[in-house]
Every structure is written in structure tokens, then in C-alpha cells.
Specification:
Blueprint lengths: L1 H11 L4 H116 L3 E9 L5 E10 L5 E12 L14 E9 L4 E3 L3 E6 L2 H9 L4 E10 L8 E11 L4 E4 L5 E2 L1
Antiparallel strand pairs: 1-2, 2-5, 2-6, 3-4, 3-7, 7-8, 8-9, 8-10
């Protein structure tokens, strides 16, 4: 009887808080499981849909990849062909440069050969002219030097060349104790001896009536006779040749100094020349 009363007392008190907590926890677990199931289901659906799309994209991209590969291979072939063509062009340019250098060398050699030939021709012409032209020079001085009188006498000249000399003439001058100088040639008083003439090869001729405008005083003559002063007799011979028509004129200068012992004119230096 007492036991039944205790049970009734317990039942009359209602459910405990622990029981309520267990129920709530159980419901939470059930709700969580439902939510996770829905989330996993959603993710699976997205993964399945994404895999399908990726496969379709891969299938669609394969022709484009094949086309790009084909285009790349074609571009590679074009590039290889262009490279080979560039190498061939470079070889042609190198050969052209070599040919140009060889042509330039040959051209220079040809110019040098022409220049050498011209020099040799001019030299041959000059040698021929020198060998065949006339050469007119003096042979002898024959003059009289006396006190108070002009110097008179004759000068012999000769054609030592191989061709005739034309328009041959001789002009003479004298100075007292002053050697003739080319620098002052224009100040000397030259006198022509004889007339112009033709002088054949190996032929000679003497001036007639040669004289110079120099009158010695007794004192000057005494100094000359003693050998302390000198008399210079000089001049030039003008003539032309028939070979060098461009420049046919020639000039031979001569000079003599009076020897008081031999009473003749000796050759002097510094004025004589021939062209």
C-alpha cells in the first residue's frame, strides 16, 4: 500500500528536466542529419552537373586544340622555310661581297696596269725624244781682250744631236769681275752674233763679229792682266727642234772666264745649262 502511494506520488510530479533535454537533443540530431543529407545531396548534384559541363567543354575544345596544333605546325614550317631562305640570302650576299671585292681588286689592278703602261709610254717617248732631238752647245771661245777696246772674237757651237736644229741664234754679254747670275739675267745687255740659221746633225758653226759692250780702262786691264780681277763672257744659244711640236724651243747657256796666262776663256760654273 505504501509502495503504490509512492508511485502515485512520483507520477503526480510530471516528467523530469533530463527527459526533456534528451528529447530536445534527439530532435536536434534528427534535424541536423536531415540538413546534412540535403546539403550533401545538393553538392553531389552540383558535382555531377560540373563534371558533365567539363566533359562537354573538353569535347568542344578538342577540335580547336587540333586546329591550333595544325596552325602551329604550319607556322613552324613557314618559319623554317623563312630561316632557310634567310640563310641562302646570306650566302648569296657573302658571295656577292666576295665578287665585288674581287672586281674591285681587278679594277684597281687594271687601273695600275694602265697607269704603268702610260708611264712606260711617256718614258719611251721621252727616251726617244732625247735620243733623236738636236743638242746644240759651244765648242770654243776665241776672243781678244785689249786695254781700251771692246772684247771681240768668235764662239764655235755644234749640233751634237741626231736631228736638225732650226732658228739657231747666239747672244752674248760680258761683265767685269762679276760672275753672271740667272737671277739678274734680265739686266745684262745681250748682243746677237750673226743671224738665225739651220744646224744639221754633227754640224758646227762659229759666230762672226762677236762683241760685247765692255770697254776696259788701263787700270782695269792691268788688274785683269795681273789675275786679281776677272772678265766673264757668257750668253745663250736658242734653237728649235722638229720632233716635239708642242714645245719645240730649247736654250743652252754658256759661260767663260778670261785666263790671263793662256789668254783664252776657260769654262765657268754656276750659269751653264741646257734643256
Amino acid at each position: 500500500m505504501a509502495l503504490e502511494q509512492e508511485k502515485d506520488a512520483v507520477n503526480s510530479e510530471g516528467p523530469k528536466w533530463t527527459d526533456v533535454a534528451i528529447v530536445i537533443l534527439t530532435l536536434g540530431i534528427v534535424v541536423t542529419a536531415i540538413l546534412q543529407t540535403r546539403i550533401f545531396n545538393k553538392q553531389w548534384e552540383e558535382m555531377h552537373s560540373g563534371g558533365t559541363d567539363t566533359h562537354e567543354l573538353a569535347v568542344a575544345a578538342k577540335p580547336q586544340a587540333d586546329a591550333a596544333k595544325a596552325q602551329s605546325e604550319a607556322t613552324k614550317e613557314v618559319a623554317t622555310s623563312a630561316l632557310n631562305q634567310a640563310k641562302a640570302t646570306n650566302r648569296l650576299a657573302t658571295e656577292a661581297r666576295r665578287s665585288a671585292n674581287a672586281a674591285e681588286t681587278n679594277s684597281k689592278a687594271a687601273k695600275d696596269a694602265v697607269f704603268t703602261a702610260q708611264k712606260n709610254l711617256l718614258l719611251a717617248e721621252r727616251v726617244l725624244f732625247v735620243q733623236e732631238r738636236p743638242w746644240v752647245g759651244t765648242d770654243t771661245f776665241n776672243a781678244m781682250v785689249e786695254s781700251g777696246k771692246p772684247i771681240t772674237g768668235s764662239i764655235g757651237f755644234h749640233n751634237f744631236g741626231r736631228s736638225p736644229a732650226f732658228d739657231v741664234e747666239i747672244l752674248t754679254a760680258c761683265t767685269y769681275d762679276k760672275s753672271p747670275q740667272l737671277l739678274f739675267e734680265g739686266s745684262y745687255f745681250f748682243l746677237q752674233s750673226g743671224s738665225k740659221s739651220i744646224l744639221m746633225p754633227s754640224a758646227g758653226k762659229s759666230t762672226d763679229g762677236m762683241s760685247c759692250d765692255l770697254h776696259l780702262s788701263p787700270q782695269q786691264f792691268a788688274l785683269i792682266d795681273q789675275g786679281t780681277k776677272k772678265i766673264y763672257l757668257f750668253g745663250y744659244i736658242r734653237y728649235k727642234d722638229s720632233i716635239n711640236t708642242a714645245n719645240p724651243a730649247h736654250l743652252t747657256r754658256f759661260c767663260g772666264t778670261w785666263n790671263n796666262k793662256s789668254k783664252l776663256f776657260d769654262d765657268c760654273v754656276g750659269y751653264t745649262s741646257a734643256d
